[in-house]
Each structure stands twice: as structure tokens, then as C-alpha cells.
Design a protein that fits this description.
three-stranded antiparallel beta sheet; 17% helix; 8 strands
């Protein structure tokens, strides 16, 4: 995990993802697997299989260009839910 003032650690880099049993599973460079509930990510839940399959792994997270969704490994390691969109406004969830 990275601190705001630290560079990303190589062992935290995502190397693979999969969806199973209602979870997003992200494999990190060092072999750890982070699993978070898919319902935390409404854009992913609503996406087609083709959109889900079109993702890009970066140094610090995952990007789905077709649905404009970005998830950070640091946020997943903290267990942070991303902000949810309600009526064209961004709100933080508890």
C-alpha cells in the first residue's frame, strides 16, 4: 500500500483480475489477492461482459475505458468504497 507521499510499491501492482461469486478479485505482483464486493462498484455491475473484459492494469490500479471506471489498489487495500453517483452528483458513501 502507498502513503500519499510515497511512490507505489512494486508488490502492490495489479497483475490480474477476475470476477467470481459476486466479488472482484485482484491479484497483486507479490501473489496477494484482494477481494471486494462487486456491489461496491455499480458501473462494473451494470457493465456488459465485453466492457468488463476491456480493462487496463496500471502501476497503481485498474481502468475500464469503456465505462470510465478507475479503481486504485490502495483504496481496495483500505477497504474504501468509491464515491457513488446519485442524480448527477457525487456523494461519499459510509
Amino acid at each position: 500500500m502507498t502513503d500519499r507521499n510515497e511512490s507505489p510499491r512494486g508488490e502492490d501492482q495489479p497483475v490480474a483480475i477476475r470476477f467470481a461469486d459476486g466479488f472482484l478479485h485482484v491479484t497483486l505482483q507479490d501473489g496477494r489477492i484482494i477481494s471486494t464486493p462487486l456491489v461496491w462498484y455499480p458501473r462494473l455491475v451494470e457493465a456488459s461482459p465485453e466492457q468488463l473484459a476491456n480493462y487496463e492494469l496500471g502501476l497503481t490500479g485498474i481502468h475500464w475505458p469503456d465505462i470510465d471506471e478507475d479503481l486504485s489498489v490502495a483504496g481496495m487495500l483500505r477497504g474504501s468504497r468509491p464515491p457513488q453517483r446519485q442524480q448527477d452528483m457525487w456523494v461519499e458513501t459510509a
